[in-house]
Write a structure and sequence with these properties.
The structure is a single chain. With 151 residues, the chain is an alpha+beta fold. The protein contains three helices and six strands; from the N terminus they run ααββαββββ. It has a six-stranded mixed beta sheet. The longest helix has 16 residues. The protein is globular.
C-alpha cells in the first residue's frame, strides 16, 4: 500500500480501496505487508502486536470465515489517520456454516512510509436470512447498494 501520509480525500479513498482489495485476497502473508513490524491492533476484544501475532490472527479468522467478502468506505481522514466503515459477509464455520454480516468501524494510524502502525476495529455480527446477502457470487462488492440505514 504505497500511498503515504499526509492524506488528501483522494489518497485516503484510494488507501481504503487498496485495503479492501488486499483483505479480500484472504491471504495473511499478503495482508501483513501493509502493516509495520510492530503494528498494534485491537480487533473486537483481542489485542495484538507484531507481524507474527497478526498473521496468526488472520489465519484463524479466515479458517472460520468462509466465502469472506468485504467492502470498506472512507468515513473520515486527517493527516496520518483514516476512519473506515465496513461490511463483510461470510459463512461461519463455527456456527453450522450460517451466513453472517459484520458491520463495523475501523480507525487506522499510519507511519510515514504508508504502512499501518495501529488498527482499532469494532464490529457486530448479524445472522442473515435467506435472500439477505448483499455480496453474492458474480457481483462486485462495489455494485451492492448499501443504504443510509446501514451507514
Amino acid at each position: 500500500m504505497p500511498l503515504c501520509p499526509p492524506f488528501t480525500e483522494d489518497t485516503a479513498r484510494k488507501k481504503v480501496k487498496l485495503a479492501q482489495e488486499l483483505w479480500n485476497s484472504r491471504d495473511p502473508h499478503k495482508v501483513i505487508q501493509a502493516y509495520t513490524e510492530t503494528s498494534i491492533w485491537r480487533n473486537r476484544d483481542q489485542f495484538l502486536q507484531g507481524h507474527d501475532a497478526i498473521t496468526a490472527f488472520l489465519t484463524r479468522k479466515w479458517e472460520k470465515e468462509h466465502d469472506y467478502r468485504l467492502r470498506k468506505e472512507l468515513f473520515a481522514w486527517q493527516e496520518n489517520k483514516i476512519a473506515v466503515q465496513f461490511w463483510y459477509e461470510y459463512r461461519d464455520a463455527h456456527d453450522g456454516m450460517r451466513w453472517k454480516r459484520c458491520y463495523g468501524l475501523e480507525h487506522w494510524t499510519f507511519d510515514a512510509d504508508g504502512r499501518m502502525r495501529k488498527r482499532q476495529m469494532s464490529g457486530n455480527d448479524v445472522q442473515l436470512a435467506e435472500g439477505e446477502r448483499w455480496f453474492t457470487d458474480g457481483k462486485s462488492v462495489e455494485d451492492s447498494f448499501i443504504g443510509e440505514e446501514h451507514w
